[in-house]
Amino acid sequence: MPISVEPLAKSIAAEVSGADLGAALSEGDFNAVHDAFLEHSVLVFRGRSQTPALTPDRHIALTRRFGEAEIHMLDQFHHADHPEILILSNGKDSGGKPLGLEDAGRYWHTDVSYTHRPSMASFLYAHDVPPEGGDTVFASTRAAYDALSADWKARLQGLRAVHGLNRITAPKFTDEQFAALDYVEHPLVRTHPETRRKAIYTGAFALSVAGLPENESRGILEFLADHCAKPEFQYRHAWRAHDLVMWDNRCVVHHATGFDRKHLRHMHRTTVAGGVPV
Question: Which is deepest, 21, 124, 129, 139, by most CB within 10 Å?
Fold first, then answer.
């Protein structure tokens, strides 16, 4: 069955059909998926195409087709047999211990931008989903940049944001994990290394604009946050069991939404290492 790509929203996201993720993609199929990824930034592989369910080995193998699989520093939430997989879950074992990271990403962000080499891509696979809620919302910061006025584009030229963590954005980090991190600077507008298109690069981990007074810095970051979150740049994904969604952290921000915690939401996430944003 040939690969089919159907756009899901005006600025971002497409659904991919015809890709058997339970097996190694052929070179032709991988190239089609890769091209769609660069064009749409978020790709959805619906659960009906995953027969049987995507195994951890195949999940990691797909991730590695795009680059180096990262090991997240929150090792307390790694898959027991596959450290490349970070478990996102509100479930608990028989002793009451959390099965994974709960309440992850309930704010607009791009994955691990608080490091020198933020994640290039993320792959999130749904094992269990609640009957309603628990959606993930994505926004194209590439489309958001394109929509900026010429004055704003000129104002942002050359500015850099300071990225880091705090106890609000990272409550599950231990003291030791916090100590292993430092603040990093990234450009407020980054150039995609493959498409060469520009995108706004901010999110919840962007704490300030380097070299600017606090009021001016806060004003810029708040404006950009509101601008990137406009509905015309968004795609909202309502999860089904065995969906896989991958997204390009170089030009996408995302956040998770709430759900009734009496239901289980259990997901596996992998990421691909990125380069230094420029």
Answer: 139
Strands 160-163 and 136-140, how do they pair? unpaired
Q: For residue 278, is it within any domain? A: no
Q: Which of 109, 163, 237, 268 is catalytic?
A: 109
Query: How do residues 215-232 score in pLDDT, each as one tens digit?
Result: 999 999 999 999 999 999
Instruction: Please say if 254 is a catalytic residue.
Output: yes
**Could you tell me which of 188, 199, 186, 118 has the C-alpha nearest to residue 157?**
188
Task: Check 142, 186, 237, 269 and give the catalytic one.
Answer: 269
Instruction: Specify whether 175 is catalytic.
Output: no
Which domain covers residue 220, as residue numbers?
A: 4-272
pTM (global) more than 0.90: yes
Choice among 29, 40, 72, 111 that is catalytic = 111
Task: Read off the pLDDT of residues 189-223 as tens digits, 9 standing for 90 and up.
Answer: 999 999 999 999 999 999 999 999 999 999 999 99
The torsion angles phi and psi of 58, rounded to 5 degrees, stand at: -70, -35
Does residue 53 form part of some domain?
Answer: yes
| Residue 13 Rama label (left phi>0; alpha psi -120 to 50; beta) | left
Q: What is the CATH number of the domain that holds 18?
A: 3.60.130.10
48 in active site:
no
In this predicted structure, the answer to whether residue 275 has a pLDDT above a threshold of 80 is yes
| Domain annotation covers residue 277 | no
Residue 128 designated active-site:
no
Which listed residue (72, 254, 265, 268) is catalytic?
A: 254
Total domains present in the chain: 1
